[in-house]
Amino acid sequence: MSEYNEPAGVKTPWHLWLVGAISLLWNGFGCVDFTMTATRNAAYLEPYPQEMLDYWLNMPLWMWAIWAVGVFGGLLGSIALLLRRKLAFPFFAASFLAASISMGFGFLDKNAPRMEGAGLMSGIIILIALLLTLYASWMSRRDVLR
Fold it and tell me: Rounded CA gap, 146 and 139, in Å?
């Protein structure tokens, strides 16, 4: 059989499934947001002010790439976590780094339009990415991830 046998004493904790499922939904939404923005989906973008749309849709390619690493890295990290793979940590770490760069650049860019609550949301995104990175590291050190 190709079924994985856990080493004696190492059980998959219940919270791994909870964290994995919630993070899959969270990061999945990030991927939807990226995809809808990148494809310029009119219905999805309608609620945003034109000034914000102009800024997002005219970002340099490297910013789009960093955003993609952030959201898809998080999604792959969530999938790896649910599959109990050690790759969860580097995927989440890449997502955290990309989110930090992206949000930091937007915060420091004097030309970036400001939306109410955007700073708080950016902080929440970075915090969740950090916590997922730390969680994957912890699960890896406990040999829950293989």
Answer: 10
pTM: 0.88
- Produce one character per residue of 57-70: b if its CB has 16 or more CB atoms within 10 Å, e if not: eebeeebbebbbbb
Closest alpha carbon to 88 in 133, 142, 34:
133
Per the prediction, the chain carries an average pLDDT of 91
Closest CA to 132 of 35, 31, 15, 11: 15
- Measured on CA atoms in the order 21, 24, 29, 30, is the torsion positive or negative? positive
Opening angle at CA 105, ends 103 and 42, nearest 5: 65
**Residue 21, C-beta contacts closer than 8 angstroms, at least 6 positions apart:** 82
**pLDDT in the model for residue 96:** 98
Instruction: Check: CB of residue 99 under 8 Å from CB of residue 125.
Output: yes
What ranges do the domains of the chain cover?
14-141
pLDDT band at 2 (very low <50, low <70, confident <90, very high): very low
| 3-state SS string for 60-100 | CHHHHHHHHHHHHHHHHHHHHHHCCCCCHHHHHHHHHHHHH
CA nearest 99: which of 26, 18, 48? 26
